[in-house]
Amino acid sequence: MSSQSVAPAYKTAPWLTLAGLLLVALNLRPALTSVAPVLGAIGDAMGLGSIGQSVLTTLPVLCLGLAAPAAPRMAHRLGAERAVLVVLAVLGAALAVRPFIGVAGLFVGTAVAGGAIGIMGVLLPGLVKRDFPDQIGLMTGLYTMLLNLGAALAAGATEPLRLAFDNDWQAALAFWLVPAVVAGGLWWSQLAPRPQATRPRRSGRRLLAEPLAWQVTAFMGLQSSLAYIVFGWLPTILVDRGMQPVAAGLVLSTSILVQVASALVVPWVATRLADQRAVLVAVLAVTLTGLAGCLYAPLGWIWPVAVVLGLGQGGSFSMALTLLALRAPDADSAAELSGMAQGAGYVMAAMGPLAIGVIHDWRGNWAACGALLAVIGLAAMIAGLGAGRNRWITPG
């Protein structure tokens, strides 16, 4: 079924539609990357050891995947745009309360925030495919660029915010409610006054029998696993290696900020090639080089290493999102593939940060984690060789 069967619920110009998409994208990572720079302070205040901190970094990624299947149902009932607005409000509420309601509230709020991000992450690629069908590479690059910018801002600013708020990590985490409120206001202002027309909801179960869909899912999950290991543990790794906490947070922020460049350029280049296999292998090779540098290179090299890591991860994540559109013949199929890839993929990705914490506790050092990172990266390359072929999933 063609994506033209459903009219957008927007009542504004395309440039404002794009602005709304980009502002929502800006909010898809601060709830996650704001935790790592103050993880030590949270652990001290809440009495969380390494395992508790591992669970805190793993939980939102797991909930990204577990909540993703709810996105098509919400879109069917509310329309995709209204579903995004509702979930954005849930994200804002979770960010507002999670630092202030104890250990259980911290974990529950983090889980809810992760679930909200997972639902929005499924809905947005379908909107990009529908509203900008002739500019998929550019629009996915812009969307990913703003997503990475939000991640970088939270990673770099949370620890300075904690210091500015008189060592109050709770206020520093709650600060990230602000961009969610701004995005919600712009998104709400664009909605038409009447509900979006609906169509029969299609099942995505047919994708379970398609190898290409599983290859896209595996690539999404494995590259995301590397990303969330970096988001959750890189500052702690660098502090243990001798860096000051503010500097370690800035290294993470720099690495994420650099992703903006490759997130914009790599999809634009890749969509002009016959297929994307070489690009997928290349960005993962660059990512693994950067990860090896973070673990083993002298600290004097950490800033150029962070740049290398960021270029690789920006390219790999933006390509994972681009594949959701390139491997689908229409917006409906893109939404179904997005739900499968981000649902199963993020559940897979959640195991990475948890495994890193367990290996560190078992071996007593971070160097031992290199083998796991290499296995994940090589497996992602194999998945990319399948997902990067110039093919479509079967339309429903």
Indicate the topology.
Elements: H1 14-26, H2 30-33, H3 39-46, H4 50-67, H5 70-78, H6 80-97, H7 102-131, H8 136-164, H9 169-174, H10 177-189, H11 211-240, H12 245-270, H13 277-296, H14 302-326, H15 331-363, H16 370-387
Helix pairs in contact: 1-7, 1-8, 1-10, 4-7, 4-11, 4-15, 5-6, 5-7, 6-7, 6-10, 7-15, 8-12, 8-14, 11-12, 11-13, 11-14, 11-15, 11-16, 12-14, 13-14, 13-16, 14-15
Detailed description of the structure:
The chain is an all-alpha fold. The chain has 16 helices and no strands. Helix content is about 75%, strand content about 0%. It has a single domain, classed as MFS general substrate transporter like domains (Growth Hormone, Chain: A, Up-down Bundle). The protein is globular and about 50 Å long. It holds the Pfam family MFS_1.
Give a nutshell description of this structure.
By secondary structure, the protein is mainly alpha-helical. Helix content is 76%, strand content 0%. Keywords: Membrane, Transmembrane, Transmembrane helix.
